[in-house]
């Protein structure tokens, strides 16, 4: 009976995880130590990697809404302070899940969620919060950014056990809209970023998009054009624009 229940849990996780359009994914990147991204956490579902996330305060983690949509908080935990999603660092149980009230599961608009942890994260060199941009702070086309996670490193390749990072550039919003217009389009709550043969990939959803210059969390890994295909030349990935949801974050998180 326990085996059947366990298999059912895994199937539920897979169905929920793949229900969003073109769930995002790190290709063409490189392995990094957690000291290089101390804000990064692994979001776990019954102990198994589900998505990524970013530490924004001792008790709060920012991730993508599609990672936790219809998932009870009691099923979730995060691992902080480790470059490996399955070991090391500290594991913290999630006590509450807040999904953006305007989240659209079909368009993945307002694709953001805040996880409230049952116990505070103790900050050190391996676990640190990342700063957020101001409300509607501009993110010019061409801005160099990084994203990181434990997702697939290529089509048909197993997820990485060690944290990987890739450098991208912010794409022109109008051009990105043209690419995605048949897939529902791009809204002002989204930002696009890409590079030749580089991308985020399945398993990286919810992870950080960081401005290399300001070191601020400017995006949340959200979706891509084709599920299961990564780093398609000319097709950037899409990220939730953190600057557009600052008022909602402020309502929940007291810095």
List the main descriptive attributes of the protein structure presented here:
255 residues, alpha+beta, six-stranded antiparallel β-barrel, 13 strands, 14% helix, globular, disordered N terminus
Task: Describe the overall structure.
- With about 260 residues, the protein is α+β, with helices and mostly antiparallel strands.
- The chain is built from 4 helices and 13 strands.
- The termini are far apart.
Structural class by helix and strand composition = alpha+beta
Count of helical stretches: 4
Secondary-structure element series: HEEEEHEEEEEHEEEEH
Which range best describes the helical content: under 10%, 10-25%, 25-40%, 40-55%, 55-70% or over 70%? 10-25%
Q: Strand percentage, roughly?
A: 25-35%
The averaged pLDDT comes out at 85
Beta-strand segment tally: 13
Stretches where pLDDT is under 50 for at least 5 consecutive residues are 1-26
Task: Give Rg in angstroms.
Answer: 16 Å
Structural shape: globular
Strand order of the largest sheet: 8-9-10-13-12-11
Report the major sheet. Answer: 6 strands, antiparallel, barrel
N- to C-terminal distance: 45 Å
Offer a quick outline of the entry:
With 255 residues, the protein is α+β, with helices and mostly antiparallel strands.
Topology (elements, then pairings):
Blueprint: H1 2-18, E1 30-31, E2 40-45, E3 48-57, E4 60-63, H2 65-68, E5 76-80, E6 90-99, E7 113-117, E8 144-149, E9 164-170, H3 173-180, E10 190-194, E11 208-211, E12 217-223, E13 237-241, H4 246-252
Antiparallel strand pairs: 1-9, 2-3, 2-5, 3-4, 4-7, 5-6, 6-7, 8-9, 8-11, 9-10, 10-13, 11-12, 12-13
């Amino acid at each position: 009976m326990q085996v059947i229940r366990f298999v059912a849990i895994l199937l539920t996780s897979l169905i929920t995880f793949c229900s969003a359009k073109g769930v995002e994914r790190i290709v063409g990147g490189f392995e990094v130590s957690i000291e290089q991204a101390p804000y990064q956490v692994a979001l776990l579902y019954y102990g198994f990697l589900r998505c990524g996330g970013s530490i924004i305060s001792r008790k709060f983690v920012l991730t993508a809404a599609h990672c936790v949509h219809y998932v009870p908080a009691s099923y979730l935990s995060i691992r902080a302070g480790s470059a490996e999603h399955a070991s090391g660092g500290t594991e913290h149980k999630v006590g509450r899940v807040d999904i953006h009230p305007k989240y659209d599961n079909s368009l993945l608009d307002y694709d953001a969620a805040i996880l409230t942890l049952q116990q505070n994260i103790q900050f050190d060199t391996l676990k640190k919060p990342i700063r957020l941009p101001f409300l509607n702070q501009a993110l010019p086309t061409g801005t160099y950014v990084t994203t990181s996670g434990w997702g697939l490193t290529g089509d048909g390749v197993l997820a990485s056990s060690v944290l990987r990072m890739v450098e991208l550039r912010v794409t022109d919003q109008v051009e990105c809209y043209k690419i995605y217009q048949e897939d529902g389009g791009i809204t002002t709550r989204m930002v696009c970023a890409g590079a030749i043969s580089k991308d985020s990939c399945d398993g990286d959803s919810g992870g950080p998009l960081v401005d290399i210059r300001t070191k601020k969390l400017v995006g949340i890994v959200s979706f891509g054009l084709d599920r299961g295909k990564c780093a398609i030349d000319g097709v950037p990935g899409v990220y939730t624009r953190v600057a557009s949801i600052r008022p909602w974050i402020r309502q929940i998180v007291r810095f």
